[in-house]
Amino acid sequence: MFASVTSVALVGVEPQPVRVEVHISSSKPGLTIVGLPDTAIREARDRVRAALASSGYFLPGRRVTINLSPADLPKVGSAYDLPIALGILAAAGQVPPGVGRVVALGELALDGGVRAARGGLAAGLLAKQKGLPCVVASESVSEATLAGSDQVYGVDSLAEAVSAALGELPDKPPPDLPDERRPPDVDMAEIRGQAVAKRALEVAAAGGHHLLMWGPPGSGKTMLARALPEILPDLTAEESLDVAQVWSASGRGRPPRLRPPFRSPHHTATVAAMVGGGSGIPVPGEASLAHSNVC
Question: Could you read off the pLDDT tens digit of each residue along the chain, which spans 295 residues?
Fold first, then answer.
């Protein structure tokens, strides 16, 4: 018995499709996960087993082999719990095979709940590209809908995820995005004096130039820098999506959608914090988080 469910991995900030393949044979009972999984994915055995039992399903008493394809791409995190569970249910015949025709992403709780996982926007982008419904945790819906997919389902439990994958969950209106035209941290009109510095900020904002401010402490450099986002134009739809991909890859969720966010790293920030990095899958640093914005 075989079934597969589509999920997603992040390569840099770009979504890479991952096919979660489940095969059940009559060999010695056990559950094996292959395809370069990290420790969090290998521990999915216990989370999935408990979540299935809490949701009224069961793990087959046979040999269950799960392959995360492509096998040469490292996978990290707990986001594959939900597609693994859906694949097991479909391969075991406990639910109709159509449950696999979705892009699924989410961590499973022991009581069968679905929790948010990194990569909600990537799942929405992949679902839109493949023309499939997207099933994510309710906390990730606002992030996944930024991709513009027509079918994004936010679920709170494994049972709801099965209903959503089978098209039995009623469509919910997309979440209302908050009005992000909030007052700036510092209004340029409130800064007295500093005529030369303000003129430099205007030129840099108009032409998209870099700007280096140099002076003694207390001379107004940070105040002027915090006023810069106010005079920058709003992000275009394309720029907003690019920024959202970077923030999603860093695990920070949804960034401000219209006004360019302001990043203010501490002067003791390390090189890794500025340019990004990390073990396993690297995450963006402050320089990347300031894409199209101010750092």
Answer: 899 999 999 887 889 999 999 999 988 899 999 999 999 999 999 999 999 999 999 999 999 999 999 999 999 999 999 999 999 999 999 999 999 999 999 999 999 999 999 889 999 999 999 999 999 999 999 888 888 888 899 999 999 999 999 988 776 666 555 545 556 678 888 888 889 999 999 998 888 888 888 889 888 898 898 888 888 888 877 887 888 888 777 777 666 666 777 788 888 888 888 888 776 667 788 888 877 666 5
Nearest to 151 by CA among 176, 134, 137, 173: 134
Q: For 188-289, which CATH superfamily applies?
A: P-loop containing nucleotide triphosphate hydrolases (3.40.50.300)
Q: What pTM was estimated for this model as a whole?
A: 0.82
Q: What is the DSSP letter of 25?
A: E
- What residue ranges do the domains of the chain occupy? 2-165, 188-289
Q: How far apart (Å, rounded) are the C-alpha atoms in residues 66 and 68? A: 7
Residues 6+ apart with CB under 8 A from 121: 143, 144, 146, 147, 244, 245, 248, 254
